[in-house]
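Minutes, project check-in
Item: structure for the 453-residue chain
Input as provided by the requester:
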Amino acid sequence: MAQTNPQSSLQVGTWDQLKTRLNRGIWPYLLITTYSLVVTLLLFRNPSTSRNTDILFVLFLGIMLLTYKMALRPEFKLAIAALFLGIGLPYFGTLNPFYMDIATMVGIFVVLALGLNVTVGFVGLLDLGYIAFYAAGAYLWAIFSTRQAQNIFPGLAHLFPVPPSWFFIFMLLALVVGACMGLLLGSPVLRLRGDYLAIVTLGFGEVIRVLATNLDRPVNITNGAQGIRDIGRPPLFFEPWVREMGVDLSQGQLYQLFFYFLVLLVLGFMIMVVYRLSNSRIGRAWTAIREDETAAIAMGVPLVRMKLTAFAVGASFAAVMGTIFAAKQLFINPPTFDLLRSINVLSMVILGGMGSIPGVILGATLVTLLNLQLLPRLARELSVLQIPSQFDPTQYQRMLFGLLLILMTIFRPAGILPEDRRRQELEGNAIDVPAEIEQSPPQATEPDVGMKS
């Protein structure tokens, strides 16, 4: 019989008891309220871009993680999320636009990671060309909101660029275009698995990037490697209402708020769609395909339809995010959609936990903060110490992500917030037997007289 360490068991028991007490009664509400107030007040008092503000901003984003993990009523969690995302973060963004831009990019990459999670996490299809759908949506709006479209349709040159209000129509068009591209990619790879599927999807992503680079002749469609500038922006339809309320914000700040809330709206809709799909017959069919494709076919799961649905769902939302990204940045070029971006999104899914919606949201947040905030901050701190430029941490992003994936695969293969099914598969369903039962000898029982012949 296995020997247990009494000291280790006591420590584990004490920690479990502490967590249980903190998740009972009024304690979790007091803890999350106190933490939120303290971090928010400290952040609002330090709006400048500095190392301390970076730390406070990360702690501020941690409010959502703590709210999710604690035993709170759903109504209270929704209220915290509404105050945090709807009031606190936008207000701080008006004090420092840099952090508002980071929050918007976090939302964009969360949607991308959730879309890739449908293909990789739910169905188990490795996709290394996912960024191609993102590029399709970006170029769709960039071409038609600028004079590039006049090169394609010279007879209709007076119609281009399209009016800014058409941005919302092009978001719907990007949804359809992305779904069609997902079907286009999914159709020829239905019989491929594993490494072969990864190679084909990688090639698809590179084909889209090369097309964007070379489609500047004989007809200049994408403007080649120079990219497309002065991309149109949607109208600020709410600006008169803001002015009437007496809020004095510049047009740049209003556009930051507009794109932030637009991304937040798409993100909320994306979470709802993915959650409903994962808990429906489609989601169960995806899980069956991921676990055992042969058994799923034997049980009557329509393999072709389910795989194509997964590709279409993930690609459609990526294309919508591409449209928003192009309008936000005002400039796009082919290197923006290279293989590294696909690997970044894949690392978000693996880091958070494949198949886990909260885990993917956390993974996308961490990787985006690492890319846009933490690594540049570390580089600026090291520059003060006069460290050679060869050791600039921003030059080693690929190495850091590779190292991150290796460590996660070894020490936390299920991810930070794994899906329950995947965690049980990787860690096993070990049942802890109480010590009293384990140590007590088996009781002798009287034989059943009635069973004697």
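Outcome recorded: The beta strands are 228-229, 331-332.
No further action items on this chain.
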